[in-house]
Amino acid sequence: MSLVETDDIEGGESLSLHQRILSDIREKILSGAWAPGHRIPFEHELTAQYNCSRMTVNKALSQLAKAGLIERRRRSGSFVRQPQSQAAVLELHDIRIEVEALGLPYRYERLGRVKRRSSAEDRALLGLSAPGQVLALESLHFAGERPFALEKRLINLSAVAEAGEEEFLDIAPGPWLIGRVPWSEAEHRIRAMAADDAIADALDIEASAPCLVVERRTWSAEHPVTHVRFIYPAESHTLVARFTPSQG
Amino acid sequence: MSLVETDDIEGGESLSLHQRILSDIREKILSGAWAPGHRIPFEHELTAQYNCSRMTVNKALSQLAKAGLIERRRRSGSFVRQPQSQAAVLELHDIRIEVEALGLPYRYERLGRVKRRSSAEDRALLGLSAPGQVLALESLHFAGERPFALEKRLINLSAVAEAGEEEFLDIAPGPWLIGRVPWSEAEHRIRAMAADDAIADALDIEASAPCLVVERRTWSAEHPVTHVRFIYPAESHTLVARFTPSQG
DNA sequence: CGTTTCAATATGTATATACATAATCGCCAT
DNA sequence: ATGGCGATTATGTATATACATATTGAAACG
């Protein structure tokens, strides 16, 4: 039995050997041909089958291991792992891009801007322990005539002092921060909520109508940078997440 | 200027060289010391600084490139990328695990089970073009006494024939499918919705109360396998997604 | 019979080397 | 000037090799 013809007569697809080994093995696993627990051929066997060096095989297998598709055990070999905990990559677009993708004109409007000493709630949201200055912003993103999302944001001025000088009248805080502050970690919370009166008013929807709430906390090298809460009317928004295990 | 002392006197942390190069460069980028656009040292410079071979440096840089932190251009060098489109990894736990993590007893109850020829709507949800048999399931997941989530699922029997023989009285379709059908791709849609009467009744909440809806479509090697819609009462559920760029 | 020891084995990491490929720079001829 | 061409350069991919390390299985020993 051989995984491939060593002399590939047909599709000389200009795939690198590395890529070919990767996709061959992925295919075997995803098709179910190699069930979880199955021992995949030893490196030296693959070396022979693909007629290449062990380093090339090793790189491919290491990558599959890092992607979580296989598990490698010294002296024992490499094994197909149990189905992984399902995880999906959730792309969190810029709202402007999202709106424009819908073919609607985008408009941003700053509602409020307050610089203040952090309240206990501010600190809780940002994950701060010591008090300090924060900037609280409230703004609306429009798709055409209609409000698309309400944004409530806190910025930790100890981490991003320059934000204190910015009015955010013409630029939304999201794009402003991106590119200025490299972020090392982010956390999102997604939930449904009934609109309270203030939200309903801002978004021009009925009170207690369902909304999708996306909260994001961002850190840069351990320091909390910002906490933001996007509130979308239920109709206007669906988050899409896709997942393909271990691509390339 | 040198990234590290070539003879590391202090922390001989038993980190592999590969790991050390990776984390050094990541640190520079995430701390902002190397801003987006900055050209990071050429491979041969890093080779000299770390006193190692180019292959080792190359492997580290390739990994950073694959993680999206840097961009490599032939003849020009490697550059710190603009902040990536924000993406987060959303873990989609098994509901049983989620409930038990809350310290509540988990219970599953099948509400309905119908085997039928796929309707146009079924095909649209599953992404099928040709008609065929599908299994429609409706079930409830409980956390303690209270309904935690309502599940509405379609299974494509052309892809998973054995599902037609299963009653799903004692095992939820999710766990049943996992481990039986390897999935190669999944897509999620997350949105908020007002509970209609049927949903409100099943979940024991008020009509038009806000709910979080998570829809998932799963493929196995191009074939649609299942479409499932989880409906959570707003209070009971928050999805959490975390992201750290390019972990080693 | 149980334990220790040792050799065999598969993976982990690193090196030196080689050639391919793409992009850029500068030279040269038009 | 300007358009093309070749040399240069940095990365991309692969090889052969070497030694480290963890684990297993079997032999040796008390």
TrEMBL record, chains A, B:
InterPro entries: Bact_HTH_transcr_reg (IPR050679), Chorismate_lyase_/UTRA_dom_sf (IPR028978), His_ut_repres (IPR010248), Tscrpt_reg_HTH_GntR (IPR000524), UTRA (IPR011663), WH-like_DNA-bd_sf (IPR036388), WH_DNA-bd_sf (IPR036390). Residues 15-83 form the HTH gntR-type domain. Keywords: DNA-binding, Transcription, Transcription regulation. The keyword Metal-binding does not apply. SMART domains: HTH_GNTR, UTRA. Gene3D superfamilies: Chorismate lyase-like (3.40.1410.10), Winged helix-like DNA-binding domain superfamily/Winged helix DNA-binding domain (1.10.10.10). Pfam families: GntR, UTRA. One of its GO terms (biological process) is negative regulation of DNA-templated transcription. One of its GO terms (molecular function) is DNA binding. It comes from the Bacteria. NCBIfam families: his_ut_repres. This is Histidine utilization repressor. It comes from Mesorhizobium atlanticum. The gene is hutC.
